[in-house]
Amino acid sequence: MTGRTAEQRREIGDFVRALREKQKPADLGLAAGSRRRTPGLRREEVAQLCGLSVTWYTWLEQGRDMSLSPAALA
C-alpha cells in the first residue's frame, strides 16, 4: 500500500469493503447472529479469517498509507 496514491488507496478500501458487505456469515461457517448492524461480515470477522489484526484491516478499508505485504493483500 505504501507508494500508492490516495485515490488508489481509497479504491482498494472501497473494493475490500464491498466484498465484505457481500459475504454472508453462514456461507463461511459463522453464526449470523440476531443483531447485525452492517450487511455482510463484520470487520473483526474478516480480519480473523484473513489473519490480520482488526486495526490493519480497518486501515486498509480506510485507505490509509501503510505497509502491507502482498500475502496480506491476497
Structure notes:
The protein is mainly alpha-helical. The chain has one domain (6-64). The protein is 51% helix and 0% strand. The model has no long low-confidence stretch (mean pLDDT 86).
What average pLDDT do the residues reach? Answer: 86
- Strand content is under 5%
Secondary-structure-derived class: mainly alpha
- How many DSSP H or I helices? 4
Number of domains: 1
Low-confidence segments, ≥5 residues, pLDDT <50?
none
What's the Cα radius of gyration? 13 Å
Shape: elongated
| SS elements, strand count | 0
Taking the sheet with the most strands, its summary is: none
N-end to C-end Cα span: 13 Å
Topology:
Blueprint: H1 6-22, H2 43-50, H3 54-62, H4 70-73
Q: Can you summarize this structure?
A:
It contains 4 helices and no strands. The chain is mainly α and 74 residues long.
Features:
about 70 residues; mainly alpha; 4 helices
